[in-house]
Design a protein that fits this description.
It is built from eight helices and no strands. By secondary structure, it is mostly helical. 17% of the residues are buried.
Length: 153
């Protein structure tokens, strides 16, 4: 068995290499790159969809909506809005669905960033308190970190 495979580094791939979207895989690569670059405003998604999916069949567009809702963790109601709009050919409703989806995704990213920031601050505080000789249990209580996390500092 030959375990060799082709690696496509989206971060180093120029947009011109994966655009225009002709096949479903092109669309997935293009959206994945946008996701990693954090370019996910509703306007950009709408512009991308309008400009890049015209070559795709309706089945491919439906598969793309499925992939997008999984990759970007869109709630079921947004997925259903996008699918219904796609079936009806109603781009206005599709645009609204993308706006809801992008806003919700951006909100989730902000919450995750805040959570990570609070954790980093707690670790920094715990490190300082440990260096000053405070007891591990008191540090755990003050920072809401586990004793194991503090011991690893």
């Amino acid at each position: 068995i030959n375990f060799k495979y082709l690696l496509l580094d989206l971060n180093r791939t120029d947009d011109e290499a994966i655009l225009p979207v002709v096949k479903l895989l092109d669309a997935v690569f293009s959206l994945a790159k946008m996701r990693f670059e954090k370019r996910l405003s509703p306007k950009e998604i709408n512009v991308w969809w309008a400009g890049q999916t015209s070559q795709l069949s309706n089945d491919d567009k439906s598969e793309l909506v499925d992939w997008m809702t999984l990759a970007f963790k869109a709630p079921l109601n947004i997925k259903n809005t996008l699918k219904t709009s796609l079936e009806k050919g109603d781009f206005t409703a599709m645009k609204t669905g993308f706006e809801l989806w992008a806003d919700e995704y951006r909100g989730a990213c902000v919450l995750e960033g805040r959570r990570e920031g609070r954790r980093e601050a707690a670790l920094k505080t715990a490190r300082k308190l440990k260096d000053k000789g405070m007891s591990i249990n008191d540090i755990a209580e003050a920072t809401e970190l586990s004793v194991d996390e503090i011991l690893q500092l």
